[in-house]
Amino acid sequence: MHHPQPHISSSTSTSFPAAAAFDFKPAKRRGSYNCGRCGLPKKGHVCHLNSTTYPTSISTPTSSPSAVTVENSSSASRPPHPPPLRQSYTHLRRALSFDDIDTRADSQERDLDGSNSPYPGTDLDPDNEMISGGLPAACLWEVLRRLPPAGLLAAASVCKGWRETTKRLWRAAEELRLMVPPRGQLRFIGSVLKKCPSLVRMSLKMESDVDATMLACIAFSCPNLESMEISTSNTAVNRITGDELGRFVADKRCLTSLKMEGCSNLGGFVLSSSSLSTLWLSDLYSLSKMVFNCPNLKEISLEFSRQENDTTDLTTMVDGMGRSSPRLQNIHIASVRLSHAVVLSLTAANLRGLRMLSLVLGSEITDASVAAIASSYSKLELLDLSGSSISDSGIGMICNVFPNTLSRLLLALCPNITSSGIQFATAQLPLLELMDCGMSVCDPDSQNSPCDESGDNELPNALNNKLYLMYQKLIIKHSRLKKLSLWGCSGLDALCLNCPELNDLNLISCKNLHPERLLLQCPSLQNVHASGCQESLIGAIKGQVSDSLASLENQFQCKRLADGSKRVRAPDCLSQEAIDDKKRRKVVDQQCKVLVD
């Protein structure tokens, strides 16, 4: 369809700039008060001109009445447009109240609502659409799509143009992150999900209770949902049962990721899905049955409550999980009921693709469990045995089996390991990038008092053991280590680190670490967590960090004057290491933060 362009006479275009078009009012759409032939006011006017006198006049077709004509009262020789029909504007919705002003005389009129689009029933491309007299819709799109859902709902009430843009944003949304208020949660969720027919990823932070009705609303409103995450606040309760969760997973054939918190009311479940690849369930308690019919499951995380009366049979659960999900790569299980028997059931599954194994809070996991893991899975990249009872011997087995694959080792809350085992692990694992040994090398005086009801003969031995455990030193030299956590290691007395790639160091509550016995040779340090430490230790950390930066800054080439009187810094043009100096300046600009609070 041909769209007429606004007509401006040559005399007018030479004497007025384009911005002066805002000084002229467009033709009134409810009917013209001027003569249709000569352009003079109709009141008290009798036109003697014939409509055929001006063969160069441009008539506006009724099918596109939105063409704008900019007129000049001093130019009477230009043939004006005939007034458009009133009924032709009934289906026109303007984006803004002043969108009929257009200073672009060389562009065609654009249909903002898509009614004249060659593809009816579809939205226009925001890159080719203009809003508000020349404002590209792509700019408004980029601004509004960064708003949270509440701000997007508020933006829809500004004007029609913004409301249409927000509607298109809702329809095009593929991911939604929403905090559900405690009141009217079901109505709120239903109204929001109704706007998003293309939603595939959803994350909900629930401040109210979650039940089967909420789950059914999500299943009905999001037919193509692929990822769902539900987290609960401290006051919210998850009332979803195992049968309801199993029906939801079975009905959502596109679901690939499911993460849910507060699953204390499941009781037992049977999950059957051919598409599910990621499953995270937390706060599990006393499950009577756990059946996984998920052949494509690759990652699973099961966190159980720490109550002592939990009756979940983890051995049977792990055995069934290994049989029905042979493609598992990442396994995380946190439970106080983890034992050596559970580890044996896991190793019997023979999961060839297993790369990450995390068995947390299992106090009955010993060095024998480490031997079973090392014999069955020799390609682990992450091993987390925090809260176990392994010793330095178990660390030695880990170093012998995984020297070429292991990059993350977490051994927090392991009371039987010492600083010698930690030092040995860093020396024998060249690919290590993360190590967590928090609360492992602890001061026994913080847990047991020497004045127990023991005999006098046992008191000297106890004191000797405490002195032996308290005064431990740790020396680590590693070329790839990036994160080291020693939080709560109150048994450390001296620390020496030579790690050029280390950027995060956790020394929280290292109360017995002496400032005189601290040496940090880590030029890439960015964050040092030192809350709970002595003031003198915090000052020593800040001093060594600043000294390391100053040493880098003073590494520029210097030379003496001609008379040999004093040394001055040579300019970059005279230095053969000018490029290296620029790199050093970039390193100096990265300030290290010592976090105390």
From TrEMBL:
<feature type="compositionally biased region" description="Low complexity">
    <location>
        <begin position="53"/>
        <end position="66"/>
    </location>
</feature>
<protein>
    <recommendedName>
        <fullName>F-box domain-containing protein</fullName>
    </recommendedName>
</protein>
<feature type="region of interest" description="Disordered">
    <location>
        <begin position="105"/>
        <end position="128"/>
    </location>
</feature>
<dbReference type="InterPro" id="IPR036047">
    <property type="entry name" value="F-box-like_dom_sf"/>
</dbReference>
<feature type="region of interest" description="Disordered">
    <location>
        <begin position="53"/>
        <end position="87"/>
    </location>
</feature>
<dbReference type="InterPro" id="IPR032675">
    <property type="entry name" value="LRR_dom_sf"/>
</dbReference>
<dbReference type="Pfam" id="PF12937">
    <property type="entry name" value="F-box-like"/>
</dbReference>
<dbReference type="InterPro" id="IPR001810">
    <property type="entry name" value="F-box_dom"/>
</dbReference>
<dbReference type="GO" id="GO:0005737">
    <property type="term" value="C:cytoplasm"/>
</dbReference>
<dbReference type="InterPro" id="IPR050648">
    <property type="entry name" value="F-box_LRR-repeat"/>
</dbReference>
<feature type="domain" description="F-box">
    <location>
        <begin position="135"/>
        <end position="171"/>
    </location>
</feature>
